[in-house]
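Page 42, continued from yesterday. The earlier attempt failed because a stray header line got pasted into the input along with the sequence. Redoing it now with the clean sequence only.
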Amino acid sequence: MSVVTSSGGSAATTSVSGISAAFARAKEEGRPALIPFVTAGYPNLAMTEMLLPALVEGGADVIEIGIPFSDPIADGETVQRTSQIALANGTTLADAIEVVRRVRANGLTTPIVFMGYYNPFLRYGLERLASDMADAGMDGLIIPDLPTEESEDVRLALRAHSRDLIFLVAPTSTDERIREVAKRASGFIYCVSLTGVTGARTTLSDDLPGYIARIRQHTELPLAVGFGISKPEHVQEVARIADGVVIASALINHLDPLPETEQPAAASAYLHSMTGR
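This time it went through. Structure tokens are written below.
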């Protein structure tokens, strides 16, 4: 195995935040880390804030918060719609940071990462963003439209404040690209399960085991699988080959028909039903 680190060394860097500990606990318990996704400001900021502790009650090991953006190119219909509504609500990146700050003040300790597109982060200011994330208790960023070779400014800003930059790889990623990701990544690597956008699917690709095995040749970082996870059987399938599972559109679709007052409890119950815990 050829294992590299974010600095090109000989052993993988697991994390510079609290993410590695979350994956380690899940591994000790013989299960994949559970990573649910919600969009900041959807259906409104108050509900976002209520959902975060509910996700923890449901077994979340890491929470992914989507930052609304007008052109979310990696997202399918469900997440795009939540982003549009959040933007119509006036939700900003600063609002999302303040939500994290408040739930931290209320005692939530589960790692939280933002998933968002580069433009809002760049406009906010990379150094300011890294500093404010650390101050609020954020753990890392996932930026789907940030090319690996253009990521150094973000990575260094985050690392200066002990935050992680989490990269995505896809089934179409070449071995060379995966090696480049492995050199820079920390926290975990987000393994897109399919070619396409986010959204619940009925089945996962038959090529998923081979794809995950190919990534493991280049890194010892935890591997989390996302895009298309919508059934308990998917979680079980991913558990056999990867270290974490991301549940996004399926969770949103489950909550959408429900009154807002019922959504936090329903989110917890849904995650329990997906994992059997």
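Notes: The first helix runs from residue 19 to 28.
Reminder to self: strip header lines before submitting.
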